[in-house]
Write a structure and sequence with these properties.
single chain; mainly alpha
């Protein structure tokens, strides 16, 4: 952001007004940067999902192929997974 060349304020009122303007401009620049950042992040995520949709669909098919697998996953991951629950889930995936 370029620095504006303005005269030094002579009165308190001019100083106050100048500070308010500078702070407002800075806050607007920050807000615009946040919006651009989150918009770009969302765009990248969306494009990645759309590009790899066929892989995601395949994963859903594999995961939903076995009711036992789905039940094991729900049991393993609905609470904090223990190593036993995760091992049981992984062994059912291999079958």
């Amino acid at each position: 952001m370029p620095v504006a060349l303005t005269a030094v304020p002579r009165t308190y009122a001019e100083l106050l007004r100048g500070l308010q303007e500078v702070l407002l401009k800075g806050q607007r620049a920050i807000d615009e940067a946040w919006v651009r950042t989150y918009h770009e992040a969302g765009r990248l995520i969306t494009e990645h999902i759309l590009l790899n949709k066929d892989r995601a669909d395949y994963g859903a098919q594999v995961y939903n192929a076995s009711p036992a697998t789905s039940a094991a996953a729900n049991a393993a991951f609905t609470s904090a997974p223990s190593s036993t629950a995760v091992s049981r889930f992984c062994s059912q995936l291999q079958n």
